[in-house]
Amino acid sequence: MTVSLPVWVHSSLNLPSCKLVTGFYQLGFYSGTFFVTLMSVDRYLAIVHAVAAMRTRTLRYGVIASVTIWVTSVIMATPQVVFAQLEAGEEDNYSLQCHPIYPEETQHSWKMRRNFTENAVALFVCLPVIIFCYLKILIVLSKSRNSKRDKAMKLIFTVVCLFVLCWVPYNIVVFLQTLQLLQVLDTCKASQAITSAMAFAEIIALSHCCVNPVIYAFIGEKFRKTLEKVLSKYFRWSSQSRGAFTSHTTDNETSNTPVISDY
């Protein structure tokens, strides 16, 4: 998501930038949702089925699952990239808008397929799986006597709530767009409201990309301790290198003055 931000500035200038931005957006949507779900399943196996999971939670299966997700995400994002085009704005002919332009004879079916795919992935497949996994984890944790149980339960509650708050509004607006295509909400006022709502829903959904590293990394005690360990080693090595360099330089400049090193 962060890598794609500079390209967004030029997305309306030429067709390659338009297709690149569309690809980043679609690929990020599908891969991000799939990987969050995969992490939920991994935690479910590690906690609920700890003994049986020792055979499946291996590097080999992790690589297979990751490659499968990336390939699936690329396949699902490809149609939107293929149809991404630059089109002059309705009010200003000099401004270009980057969005998918489908063939007229199949335009309706392609829009329906896009909306159904996004809703199916996020709302009807991944969200139920995430809720199921974390509910099972909460049941297991509630029966344990671990001192860190309450902290883990709060973290799980935060993960599920943030996913729901960030992605459900977007999927609701996508569903309303589908109703609009089915001519259920086929009014000018409804169309303007849905367009405005989509702009805000996309902002909320994309903000989940910024919240994810905080949830899955910096709040986690294991990651935090490992990061502190790596940083302390780096700064210790850096200070040692600077100290050795300073000692060596001072010794060359004042050879008659004894230098006492702390290292």
Automatic annotation (TrEMBL):
Alphabetical list of SUPFAM superfamilies matching this protein: Family A G protein-coupled receptor-like (SSF81321)
G-protein coupled receptors family 1 profile domain location: 1-216
Membrane-protein topology: Multi-pass membrane protein
UniProt keyword list: Cell membrane, G-protein coupled receptor, Membrane, Receptor, Transducer, Transmembrane, Transmembrane helix
Subcellular location: Cell membrane
InterPro entries for the chain: CCR1-9-like (IPR050119), Chemokine_rcpt (IPR000355), GPCR_Rhodpsn (IPR000276), GPCR_Rhodpsn_7TM (IPR017452)
Annotated segments matching region Disordered: 244-263
Database matches in Gene3D superfamilies: Rhodopsin 7-helix transmembrane proteins
Ranges that cross the membrane: 20-41, 61-83, 120-141, 153-173, 193-219
Domain of life from the UniProt record: Eukaryota
Alphabetical list of Pfam families matching this protein: 7tm_1
Homology family: Belongs to the G-protein coupled receptor 1 family.
Protein name: G-protein coupled receptors family 1 profile domain-containing protein
The species this protein was found in: Xenoophorus captivus
Organism classification: Eukaryota, Metazoa, Chordata, Craniata, Vertebrata
